[in-house]
UniProtKB/TrEMBL annotation:
Domain ChlI/MoxR AAA lid positions: 259-319
Name of this chain's protein: ATPase
Molecular function via GO: ATP binding; ATP hydrolysis activity
SUPFAM superfamilies: P-loop containing nucleoside triphosphate hydrolases
InterPro entries registered for this protein in UniProt: ATPase_AAA-3, CbbQ/NirQ/NorQ/GpvN, ChlI/MoxR_AAA_lid, P-loop_NTPase
Keywords linked to the UniProt accession: ATP-binding, Nucleotide-binding
Domain ATPase AAA-3: 52-185
UniProt xrefs under Pfam families: AAA_3, AAA_lid_2
Organism: Tepidicaulis marinus
Signal sequence, renumbered to the chain: none
């Protein structure tokens, strides 16, 4: 019993220490990114859970700036790829070039692509061809790339924050459902409120802008990621996660909104994502264990890109967020 108590005490102290450091890092990001507190929180949750995020929002909402700011604050090497229809897989992962040395001997040398970084922004990922999308998504899943039969490991940590513009869908290649599942969260980036936009307007159009400062190192982030997986989860929270995810599947649901309107629902990876996300959310608040409130708060970001409505539901104006809200209400 003493051993268990001591172990719990160690985790509590680690959570409190890590939570304070993460709160400092979040504050540093919020000093630069105005009016997007929820977006910043969900981005931190994604990184702490060791996952990737899909940022969905119209242009001009500081998505690019958010990624660069997160890289600086967390001490991660960040890079950006602008996805276009003519982008090739080699433009992401790299390619081999034929070189000739002083003795006239020729050999191939691998030149690493921009995917070899710790925090990658894939800007407007749905503008590239499916083949190019697959090259990135495979790297996200496997944490390595293979070129000419040679395997190259990606840096650790490695995270992708991809953006998608909900407007101007002509000439785009929507991500297939199986590939969307690779993203831990879908983070919707909305317009800032009036006060935040006023503050942003005054802060960004003058001579001086708030400098971005590093708070954590990439090693501290990896340590926090390992801590997330050690945070205990109560049986009630586990049951709530399973109930929520399974009730979103039309084959298993006993909710009319799901059986009538949902074409297909989330797989087991959604349960895994939600389990890691609620642990990470608890850590960002310096709490020892997640609660059902964490499950409710993260239900939409975890599920909305893992579900699809049938034609009749779309014709009636039914939305995925509305269905998820109904399922969350059932959790009590």
């Amino acid at each position: 019993m003493n051993t268990v108590s001591e172990a719990e005490g160690d985790i509590v102290r680690e959570v409190e220490t890590a939570g304070a450091r993460i709160a400092e890092a979040r504050s540093a990001v919020n000093d630069v990114i105005f009016g997007q507190t929820k977006v910043v929180e969900e981005t931190f949750i994604t990184l702490l859970a060791g996952g990737h995020a899909l940022l969905v929002g119209v242009p001009g909402l500081a998505k690019t700036r958010l990624v660069h700011t997160m890289g600086v604050v967390l001490g991660m090497e960040d890079k950006r790829i602008q996805f276009t229809p003519d982008l090739m897989p080699a433009d992401i992962v790299g390619s081999e070039v034929l070189e000739e040395n002083e003795q006239g001997r020729r050999n191939f040398r691998f030149i690493k692509g921009p995917v070899f970084c710790q925090l990658l922004m894939a800007d407007e990922i749905n503008r590239a061809s499916p083949r190019t999308q697959s090259a990135l998504l495979q790297a996200m899943q496997e944490q390595h790339v293979t070129v000419a039969g040679q395997r190259y490991e990606l840096p650790r940590p490695f995270h992708v924050l991809a953006t998608q513009n909900p407007l101007e869908q002509e000439g785009t290649y929507p991500l297939p459902e199986a590939q969307l599942d690779r993203f831990l969260l879908q983070i919707d980036v909305d317009y800032p409120d009036l006060a935040a936009e006023r503050r942003m307007l005054l802060a960004t159009t003058g001579l001086d802008e708030t400098p971005v400062r590093q708070i954590l190192s990439s090693e501290e982030l990896r340590s926090a990621q390992r801590l997330v997986r050690r945070i205990p989860v109560g049986e009630q929270v586990v049951d709530a996660i399973l109930e929520l995810v399974r009730s979103a599947r039309p084959e298993e649901a006993n909710v009319a909104e799901v059986t009538e309107h949902v074409a297909w629902g989330p797989g087991p990876r959604a349960s895994q994502a939600l389990m890691l996300a609620v642990r990470a959310r608890a850590l960002t608040d310096g709490r020892f264990s997640p609660s059902i409130d964490d499950v409710a708060a993260l239900a939409a970001p975890v599920l909305r890109h893992r579900m699809a409505l049938n034609f009749a539901a779309r014709a009636e104006g039914i939305t995925i967020p509305g269905v998820v809200d109904r399922l969350v209400q059932r959790l009590g």
